[in-house]
Write a structure and sequence with these properties.
The chain has one helix and five strands, in the order E-E-H-E-E-E. It has 67 residues and is mainly beta. It is globular. It starts with 8 loop residues before the first strand and ends with a strand. The model has no long low-confidence stretch (mean pLDDT 93).
Length: 67
């Protein structure tokens, strides 16, 4: 079951996992992807970046928490 809901503002690592040296980003959850397959095991979230407005699919493990 997804930990975050649509509309929540989150901190996340866009690539490389939560412990990577990739800079942290901030954005808003716009959709939750839980279709059959791998996404059913670990939900993915479509997050809209607060700075660029671009959307990306982010694994739940790459979301660091709420803002």
């Amino acid at each position: 079951m997804p930990q975050y809901t649509v509309g929540q503002s989150v901190r996340y690592k866009p690539v490389g996992g939560p412990n990577s040296k990739t800079p942290e980003s901030k954005g808003t959850v716009r959709d939750i992807i839980t279709s059959p397959g791998e996404a059913a095991q670990e939900p993915r979230y479509q997050v809209e970046n607060a700075n660029t407005g671009k959307r990306a699919s982010i694994k739940e493990s790459n979301i660091l928490g709420l803002i």
